Amino acid sequence: MAGAMKKVDKIRQIVRLKQLMMRWKHISLRRRSLPSEPEPCSAARRPPSGFLFVYIGPERKRFAIPARFLNLPVFSGLLDETEEEFGLRGNGGLVLPCQVGFFRHIIKHLHKDEHKFGKLSLEEFVKMFSEMASDYPCKENVVAFVPLLQKAEV
Question: What is the separation, in whole angstroms, between the first and last Cα of the chain?
Answer without folding.
Answer: 91
